[in-house]
């Protein structure tokens, strides 16, 4: 290969890379009624309604709902909230985002690429909140084998993105999923005024009244659990 040909190939590759970068969809992904039906920004919710305050996320009380705080042992910080409801588990996280652009389209693409590379079957579906991912992978033999289904949902709000990872019955059953989506839409995100780079996890905290034993009766029906889990 001559130097001229090699140089032309390198220019062509750089052009393709630039084109791929330009094709990243930075538009916001959210239902049209997000501001009135949720998930909400803290500025959109009446102050008198009771919530479990977890810092960056507030959870509305609901009968049969159990919460667990997922903790990164190495960093010693809460990194996610797991909601156990209707024979399903939904892990939620909120991230900072630019004011005028969204994150969910890019995050969804990244999740699809990563899980596909790990051998999972990935499909994008249109859900009530917008595009969502359904990931099917083989469950370990020690967990009974078969196929594990995980559903990723996300919504872009004002300067934040809220992501949910749905497992259990709601991942595969539409009627149950509707109940879990309703729970997701009742969540409130507290972005705060401090400057943060895009995609940074909003700080979470143990709610007031939770004892060191990791369990306490709170406004949520059931238990608020301070479980420890590797992130």
What does the model show?
InterPro entries: DUF3710. The chain is an alpha+beta fold and 231 residues long. It contains 5 helices and 13 strands. It has helices spanning 3-22, 34-37, 104-117, 169-172, 174-185, and strands at 40-41, 52-53, 57-59, 66-72, 77-85, 88-96, 121-127, 130-138, 147-157, 160-168, 188-189, 215-216, 224-225. A 9-stranded mixed beta sheet has the order 7-8-9-10-6-5-4-13-12. β8 (130-138) and β9 form a beta hairpin. The chain starts with a helix and ends in a 6-residue tail after the last strand. Residues 4-22 and 211-231 have low confidence and may be disordered.
Question: What Rg is obtained from the alpha carbons, in whole angstroms?
Answer: 20 Å
Inertia-based shape: globular
Helix tally? 5
CATH topology: Protein Transport Mog1p, Chain A
What's the count of strands? 13
| Structural domains: how many | 1
User: Could you give the order of strands across the largest sheet?
Assistant: 7-8-9-10-6-5-4-13-12
Weakly predicted, low-confidence segments = 4-22, 211-231
Strand content: 25-35%
The average pLDDT value, as a whole number, equals: 84
Distance between the termini: 48 Å
Helix content: 10-25%
Secondary-structure arrangement, i.e. CATH architecture: 3-Layer(aba) Sandwich
CATH class: Alpha Beta
Order of SSEs: HHEEEEEEHEEEEHHEEE
Class by alpha and beta content: alpha+beta
* Largest β sheet strand count, sense and barrel closure: 9 strands, mixed
């Amino acid at each position: 290969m001559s130097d001229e040909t090699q140089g032309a190939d390198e220019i062509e590759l750089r052009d393709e890379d630039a084109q791929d970068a330009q094709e990243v969809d930075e538009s916001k992904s959210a239902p049209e009624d997000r501001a009135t039906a949720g998930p909400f920004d803290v500025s959109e919710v009446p102050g008198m309604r009771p919530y479990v305050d977890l810092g960056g996320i507030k959870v509305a009380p609901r009968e049969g709902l159990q919460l667990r705080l997922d903790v990164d042992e190495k960093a010693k910080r809460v990194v996610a909230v797991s909601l156990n409801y209707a024979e399903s588990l939904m892990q939620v996280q909120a991230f900072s985002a630019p004011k005028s652009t969204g994150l969910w389209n890019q995050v969804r693409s990244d999740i699809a690429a990563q899980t596909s590379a790990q051998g999972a079957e990935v499909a994008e579906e249109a859900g009530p909140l917008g595009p969502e991912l359904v990931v099917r992978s083989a469950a370990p033999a020690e967990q009974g084998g078969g196929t594990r289904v995980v559903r990723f949902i996300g919504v872009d709000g004002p300067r934040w993105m809220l992501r949910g990872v749905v497992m259990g019955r709601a991942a595969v059953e539409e009627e149950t999923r509707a109940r879990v989506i309703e729970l997701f839409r009742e969540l409130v995100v507290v972005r705060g005024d401090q400057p943060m780079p895009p995609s940074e996890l909003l700080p979470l905290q143990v709610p007031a009244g939770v004892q060191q034993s990791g369990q306490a009766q709170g406004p949520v029906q059931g238990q608020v659990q301070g479980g420890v889990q590797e992130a």
